[in-house]
Amino acid sequence: MALLEIKNLTVAFDTSVGLFKAVDGIDVSVEAREVLAIVGESGSGKSVAMLAVMGLLPRTATVTADKMEFEGLDLLTMTAQEKRRIIGKDIAMIFQEPVASLNPCFTVGFQIEEVLERHMGLRGRAARDRAIELLALVGIKDGADRLGAYPHQMSGGQCQRVMIAMAIACNPKLLIADEPTTALDVTIQKQILDLLVRLQAETGMGLIMITHDMGVVAETADRVIVQYKGHKMEEADVLSLFENPKSNYTRALLSALPENAVGDRLPTVSDFVFEPAPGV
Questions:
Q1: Keywords on this record (predicted)?
Q2: Which single residue of 86, 106, 155, 178 could bond 210 by disulfide (Cβ 3.0 to 4.6 Å)?
Q3: Are 173 and 71 in contact, with CB atoms under 8 Å apart?
Q4: What global pTM score does this model have?
């Protein structure tokens, strides 16, 4: 049984000109100990699909699916109370823009310890010790001193590590990482990616990596879903995707990599007509 299984997911938003489908009938599944990359350009519906799983979309969104199950539990029919027991504990998410995602009014220690208190029942010294342990796990060695820091007093890379510490605090079975290296310099990007892959390997959790970076896909993924304008264009294991892409859109993404430039020009999306791969 898949850890997460989604069939025919559609997410539509009520706008002034009618319903806009940000996600249009996609299927997603991920197993424990697997790294699934969901790749596509900005606006392809990658983040929206995963926010639907987390139940974090605004009320203007209409979410429908034939199936949305986590370990056999129906996420669509769960009550809000039942879902709160899972979200943040068994399913966790690292959001884009860590500085914006952390609350600027509270110390990072308070924010990590709040997760531990809500989902693990830890308080006081036990929560503090676990928070320091988590910070060390994500590469912040002076954790005891950093607990009292506010997000604006830390670098972008450090804030991203704090976000990861919060996400893994309860040993989730599934971790969703939404563009986890956005706005970080190249050296920090590699450190964050290495950290996520190491944590995934050590804990055996499923990892969904949302990205538009084909280099990240090549480095981290076991399997890849390619999305374009809310549609799934292709799904394949990472080696097959790079060696023998089936959809024009995947070929467009790969041809736009700098190493594939012809002369001084890279192809643009307007050079291609996009159709899903056969059977998708």
A1: ATP-binding, Cell membrane, Membrane, Nucleotide-binding, Transport
A2: 178
A3: yes
A4: 0.90
* HSE-CB of 106 using CA atoms within 13 angstroms: 11
User: Which runs of consecutive H residues, i.e. helices, occur in the chain?
Assistant: 46-54, 80-86, 98-101, 108-120, 124-137, 143-146, 156-168, 186-203, 214-220, 238-243, 248-255
d(CA 224, CA 234): 8
DSSP string across 85-140: HHBTTTEEEEPSSHHHHS-TTS-HHHHHHHHHHHHH---HHHHHHHHHHHHHHTT-
Q: Summarize pLDDT for 183-195 with one digit per residue, the tens.
A: 678 888 888 888 8
| Contact residues for 138 (Cβ-Cβ < 8 A; gap 6+) | 161, 162, 164, 165, 168, 195
